[in-house]
Design a protein that fits this description.
Layout: H1 3-15, H2 20-27, H3 35-72, E1 76-80, H4 84-106, H5 109-121, H6 128-139, H7 149-181, E2 185-189, E3 193-198, E4 206-209, E5 215-223, E6 227-235, E7 241-243, H8 254-262, E8 270-273, H9 285-292, H10 298-306, H11 311-317
Helix pairs in contact: 1-2, 2-7, 3-4, 4-5, 4-7, 5-7, 8-10, 9-10
Amino acid sequence: MDDSERRRRIARLALLGVPEAFRGAIAERPSPRWHNLMHAAIILSSIGLAILAIAVWSRLVDHLAESAARAAGARLFTSDLGLESLGGLFSVLFAAGWLCSWLTRRRGSEMARNGTAYDLMHEPARYKSIIDRLWRWMVAPHVEGAESADDFLDRLAGGMVGYLRLATITSLIATLVLAALVPAHYSLASDSAIEEHPMLPWSGATTWPIPTARQVVTGCVTLPRDGNSLIYRLRFADGSEAELGSWQSPQGKPLPALVAIASRLPQTIASERFSNPIGNDPLSPDCLREFGGRPTSESLGELLRLLRLTEAEKASLHGRI
């Protein structure tokens, strides 16, 4: 280790509030072998498992929604994850950190001290101010009473295990609370009503009768990220919305289901053409061809009637689809 690296380490320790008497001995400690590789493997594996678990949970929710739609004879269905997936991801990351700190402390006294010293002196590449503030918060309680640099590192290593254990438990509790407040759910649309079913055993379904819809927003747009997207959004008096254009049909083709549901809407329902801030064409020919088929097909005629085209819009589309 050259003088510049030693000075950097001592400056780093001073920034984090390590007592001056301990800085020299801590700065001289060698970097532990395989320390970064082991921690990276644990964290990356944990993230991979968390993402896999979220994907499996998402597929399960979607499967339950489809099964419920078939059992109820619903024409359309959709599903969505709640905040439990986000809370679960944070819980896994905290648990991985807890495991890393526990393993660091278990690798023998000198290796544990080398690992703690390395983590302490490592310069974060991103979010430096936040990470430095967290380190100072963790260092401060273990300064008083430490008799030597080794004693300080032992205290700090034990404290880190406790902090991360507490963070993991707190995150798990928060995940349960979030899951109760904003749970995963699925929605079904029949000829008569739209139902939303939270995936909680004590929660009942919320129902919006189709004839009570106050407004329908329609369009067929080509979005930069989502591609061709059919817009058929029902708005109700309580402010709720149902974007039926993106829902799935148990029978495979959503257009006939949308047409059947649309036939139950009030004749006097307010109609609005879809628009967004980036100014996409609300009646994109590419989108209309994808969802409606060939220009001479019956399904394209059904789609155009479903979208409630004005005479001016019909004229503007002539020869383009």
